[in-house]
Amino acid sequence: MRVRKMSALVGAALILGCCLILYLMMDLAVFPSDIHDNKWVQFEGRLKQLEVDLHRHHETVGKLKHTIKQLISNSPAPYDYQQHSNHTVVTTSATTPEAGADVSCSIQFKSVPRADIQMLDVYKELKFDNIDGGAWKQGWNVEISGQEWDKHNKLKVFVVPHSHNDPGWIKTFEDYYHSQTRNILNNMVNKLSEDPRRKFIWAEISFFSLWWDEIPIETKEQVKKLVSDGQLEIVTGGWVMNDEANTHYFSMLLQMMEGHQWLLSQLEFKPRNSWSIDPFGQSPTMAYLLKRMGLENLLIQRVHYSVKKYLAHNKNLEFRWRQLWDGNGSTDLFTHMMPFYSYDIPHTCGPDPKICCQFDFRRLPGFGISCPWKVPPQVIKEQNVAHRAGMLLEQYRKKAQLYRTNVILAPLGDDFRYDHASEWDAQYNNYQKIFDYWNSKPHLYVEAQFGTLNDYFNAVREERKPERFPSLSGDFFTYADRDDHYWSGYYTSRPFYKRMDRVLLTYIRATELLFSLGWSTKQSSSDWLLAPESGLTKLLSDARRSLSLFQHHDAITGTAKDHVVEDYAKKMLEAINGMQHVMQQAAHFLLSSPRVPYQPNSEFVYFDLDDIRKHHYSIPEKTVVFVGEGLESQRIVLYNSLTWRRQELVTLRVSTPNVKVTNTAGTAVTSQISPVFQELSDVIADSRYDITFMADVPPLGLTTYFLHAVRPAQKIENVMSRIKLLNFVGYVPRVEGFEYIEVADEAKEFSIHNDHLSVAFSEQGLLKAVTLKDSGVTVPLHLDFARYQARQGQERSGAYLFLPDREAETVAWDSSPVRILEGPLFSQVHMHLPGVQHTVTLVNTEGADSLGLQVQNVVDISDQVNCELTMRISSSIKNGDDFYTDLNGLQIIRRKRFSKLPLQANYYPLPTMAFIQDQKFRFTIVTAQPLGVGSLKEGQIEVMQDRRLNQDDNRGLGQGVTDNKPLPATFRLILEQRQPSCQGTATDHPAGLSTIAAHVASLSLLHPLFHLLWLGKTSDNLESHYAPVTQEPGCDIHVVMLHTFPLQSKNAAGLIVHRQETDPCFPLEQFPLSNGLLNVSSLVPTQFGNTMKEATLSFLEEGKTVQKNTARPVCHMEMSAFLFPR
Q: Which residues form the Glycoside hydrolase family 38 central domain (predicted)?
């Protein structure tokens, strides 16, 4: 039987191979001008053409394309799984990949990957001169001769009606739905059903799902028919149209997955085209995620007007967007860039908005809005159709001159359009009359119709294969819509809620991991966890949707009305509380004794999460753990959501200094006791102390420690922090344990130390220099704070725009007291200056928390007027005008400071890290919250901390930013010495790589150890630890998510992993890397069965079934997704 099967398989393979070769030969013979160096890329293009012509199901073609893509590689040799030779590498239990696995990786850092257009080079070339172009103010006078078209070369026009619905901006998400969006969607069903020629596209699934839950079954069936007939297309399919500057790739992925899974379950629809018209700048991370989700085309709009003009001049507004590291084009996503100022109708039909506005029939007299150019639209009649159609056709023809095909896309919509039935009739009826006129006049050589994105992209691909468009790499930040109005303010606006976003991200990821491990580890007794009546899966779903909603481009950006921001925050706080509940439930279940039948109580609170948030605007507080008479000991469970062992400091707040920490073996753990100071003072609080110890927690695991009350005279392994107060005059009350405090009434320089660093501070208590003890080299690192003032005039800084009047002025203040704590586990410096409580902590462990300095700034500028506060670090590093920032936590891009651009144009998003470097050193700043960053002078990095602005910046919000909340902003500053004569990335590479230290520091900062404070009796029958991982995969492999599917799904869970490439010139032995092979069973050995399926990133498409315990390759910079069947 095996021989027969093998013979059949070999025979089928030979027949398929012959067909492919014959097809390729015919392709080369018929299309000799289209031959490219990589014939397999060419062949993939032919498959895409077949897809268009035959309208086959995407699932089937996708499998064929996946097979072909395995052959696409510019490198003839298999990829070397070993990391760079000077990195420490760990191995998995299997050392060879599964037979037949795709082993070609597209990563290219040693040399510059080929791209026809590289955006950093474009910026070097552009003059940014902003010449008035006439009717197309930011372009030029586009001319046509009229000879460009004939009967063999017709202009194909697709008018695409749409309505852009913000899930919160001027109104809350729910208010928008009830006042406008519900009407739009109801009208959509009625009006599309009236005429099969009508088309419409929709993007925001958050609104669509809300509407779906309240419409009758008959209407749902109508919608499904409209989708299947191609009249209605769901584009992108995300929960929202997410921001691309401040967002983390986890949240981008999550909100897309939330929308895609809803579409799959409710409509059995899989999006293929993405529509991104309103995010304020565009990131290649989004293109990468879309590509790996199975989408094929992308449309973008908000790009710097000079960049649009540059690309339009060369007909490069359509391109294959390629990732910065991609050496063979495997990440290419076909992208259409809209050419003009906005996505509204006046700026989408052609270069003259005065004319285009006359074809927005919502602006007809009597509809309530008019054209700013004072020339209204006219109802199309038999008497005027020839003239009016001629005016519009001229605009379409001019627009066609900016692209490489004769296919034109003309969006027809704006914000919250089509909420009245009268607009549907006005737009569709008048345009249909124009289409009928054109289509009845063969000599015009035009074919026009309503269309969807799918109609448009299919027509483009039919005329010209994607491989014949240029490739482009880079990003589209920082966005400017006109003049010097750069949208770099929103990188920082409302930073309190940007931090809250990251906290919720952390809770959702960690909770779902533990929850999924919980029900899959003890499947015989875990049905209650997944049961709807427990309410736990609903809490998870609600939290995912709250975080997804906040990824909207007017939410995480801080660009919504005050009451809308509060609405988002309340939803996020509720989600955080929900995740705390689910996490402690899952932890209790996993630690419950297998010898005793588990008695579930899904409403019971077993643990306190040591993270109290009283209000949506409150700084989190720690729980005071009481130990003493009657409470001699307390159980503390620690949870590590990362895939490597964590040996890091844990700080708990206790009621007495007479306490010790023990591990599960009863061994005392060295601890450091510190006082707690009253807020905004140097007075020690009574009956509150911090005890800090080094914890050891397994990957994806739980472990237990105990706090014990001890008698004051009892000898324990504790050390009291030494306290110094410099430049302090006054009385210092003593408290128990801290009877002696060193006080100096004058300011002086000082330093703190650990085993690796010596850190010097100025008399004012600010960072001055860092000495690397291994080499003895000292590098100046001067930290200070500076303030920008808003420029005067009508155009001023606001929620979106950063328009400073001049360079920042250093904050000056009268010398204030400096507080120093020192001990064996950590040392800390604390001081106050106007608007900031500034704390620097130096940890003395071998863990990720010891990699550099931790800085926390509690920022409060609520008493300022038009103030933008920044933290600057100045060094002796000779980085020239180059610096590096990350994109969404996924990749790092090279930036260049341009003197030809204004200051605000040299500010960029800082989602997780930025660095400067020279041939000797690298300085990295890692952030726990997204903010704005710049390197405005050599050797310097500055990070905006908060903005308070008293006026609107004329971008529609209608208010300033004055709802500032005290923000605990946290950073890690990492100084590293480069290995001599080492090359990481190529000298002129447009991307960068984080060091291992920066990578693990960022992960540990974003995903801290969770403290679960047991609320029951210490003697309760709980296991001391849970450790599912049998072998660590390496610090470069990160579990992005372990997602639980609803019970009705055929799949039980989905796993996504990411492998980060790091710079080989900065090795770190205590954090070993993988060899590029991942054995999933080493992460989840007893969970989810023995097999899994390959999948796309949002789990829409399923691939082949593979064994869970077989090592599989994971390429650097790539993500891999797997589905575990139920």
A: 485-572
